[in-house]
Design a protein that fits this description.
Belongs to the CFAP144 family. This protein has 127 residues and is an all-alpha fold. 38% of the residues lie in helices and 0% in strands. The longest helix is centred in the N-terminal third of the chain and has 17 residues. The chain starts with 9 loop residues before the first helix and ends with a helix.
Length: 127
Amino acid sequence: MAAGKEEVDYVRKNLIHADTVKKEQRYQKLHTEFSINPFRKLHVLPDKPMSRKPPEALLEDTTFIEAYRRVHMEPAKKYPAPITESQEIGWIAGPLIQENRQDPRFNFRRFKTDVTQNAAFFRRGLK
C-alpha cells in the first residue's frame, strides 16, 4: 500500500448506495395513467366563419366525462371506505338502528304531570 492512499471498502460503499436507493424509492411513485385535468378549463377555438371546410365530427370522450362526474361526487359515493381520518367522522350519515316510535328507551315524549301543569299555570299568571 502506498503512503497517503487508503484502501477502498467496496462493501461499505455498496451498503451506502443501497441505503440511498431505498430512501429515493420510498418517495417515488410510478404514474401509469394519464388523463386531462377535469378542473382546468379547455378553450375550444371554432373554425373561421367563412371557411368552406366541413366541420369534423368529434366523438365524445366518455372517459373524460365520467372522470369529470366522478370528481364532483361526494366522497361516500366515490370510495367504499373513508380514505382520510377526517372522512371517518360522518361517513355513515344514516341512522345506525331502525327507528321505532313505540320503544320507550329511545323515544321520550313530553307528557304533563300535576307538578308541570301547576308550574305552567303559575307562569301564565305571571305574564
